[in-house]
Amino acid sequence: MQDNTIPFHRPSIGPEELQAVREVLESRWLTTGPVTQKFEREFAAFVGSKYAVAVNSCTSALHLALDAVGIIAGDEVLVPSYTFAATAEVVVYLGARPVLCDSLPGGFNIDPADAARRITPKTRAIIAVHIAGEPCDLQALRELAELHSIHLIEDAAHALPASYAGQRIGSISEMTAFSFYATKTITTGEGGMLTTNDQAYATRASIMRLHGISGDAWKRYTSQGSWYYEIIDAGFKSNMPDLLAALGLAQLKKAEGFHQRRREIADFYLRRFSSIEELKMPPTGNVNTTHSWHLFILRLRSEMLSRNRGDLIQQLKEAGIGSSVHFIPLHLHPYYRDRYGYSAGDFPHAEDAFVNCVSLPIYPDMRDAEVNRVATTVEQFIQKNCLRQHAYAD
């Protein structure tokens, strides 16, 4: 029997990825090595940065970025409340305080004006998250950072290959962290990359990702290496192995094609949904930006419907369609509520986005019939539950 389920995500893995992994296995060198270095060089060239440091997750990339700029205990770092756990938890790793900020009205990304109000003498950095792949207002954030002499770091877990003002995300700010998690625009299963144009930052991150060992520590077991090494700081274990880098190299070659398909699906959804009053379209950026369309986050105008977001998710599930919610704002979680004193109502725009949003499937492997089925199921839900009298009468 054919499985007609449309999962929320399905990775695009082909013979190129299988061959790349096979070659690494046959080389007998599995951990960080020459394939990882090649991935770093090609990724840096792709986004237009001078340096790229491959790591085991975007979380690690953010952690290394904060370490590189010298975040220490007692510092404050501005982060959006509307983001995944990783963005703020890396601040806590270093003993600093994550200071949450609201989203733009009607949007998902951090509001520069709200961030400005939360700057104190202890503020050392801002982490800008490009939610769903829509670039943040980097000009406003950069001006804010320069005005207060603080660092600007980008969380681009969703944003490959987005661009801002003609430059690829990853080549603009001091440092940018990318994710290659299984659901991302390219994947290594688990993995991440830190990009920068600053050699000192790149060197620091390269050393700290592997126990704080100086030099090319990975060469210790090769004929070109030496058994001798020196530990120059208490580092971390965040390196990417060649097995995963091989996947990344194969996926990177397909990144443009993947992006084109995501844009086609997003355009289809926008055409189908834009005229429905009960639905609010996701921000699409502007002429100055290119959206990566990692996520398609639809928002319901709940006041116009007799049923809510949870009911739509259930109807999609019953139709064999996966969906998700991105994100539960951090200030609503017990950890941030109890430790830092946040509570419901503190960030109204982030909460408004959360209570009404649902993420629909959008990935290169989706067939046209599947995309149409998702759209039709959403339309049927609206038609059945809209409060406008006779709005959908024949």
Note down, in words, how this protein is organized:
This protein has 394 residues and is an alpha/beta fold. The protein folds into 2 domains: 15-255, Aspartate Aminotransferase, domain 2; 256-385, Aspartate Aminotransferase, domain 1. 38% of the residues lie in helices and 14% in strands. It has 13 helices and 13 strands. The protein has helices at 15-27, 34-47, 58-68, 85-93, 112-117, 138-148, 199-208, 242-252, 255-273, 309-318, 334-340, 348-356, 368-385; strands spanning 51-55, 76-80, 97-101, 123-129, 151-155, 163-164, 167-168, 175-179, 192-196, 279-280, 289-290, 296-300, 357-360. The strands form 3 sheets. A 7-stranded mixed β-sheet has the order 1-9-8-5-4-2-3, sandwiched between helices. Strands 7-6-11 form a 3-stranded antiparallel β-sheet, with no helix packed on it. A 3-stranded antiparallel β-sheet has the order 10-12-13. Helix 4 (85-93) links the parallel strand 2 (76-80) and strand 3 (97-101). The protein is globular and about 75 Å long.
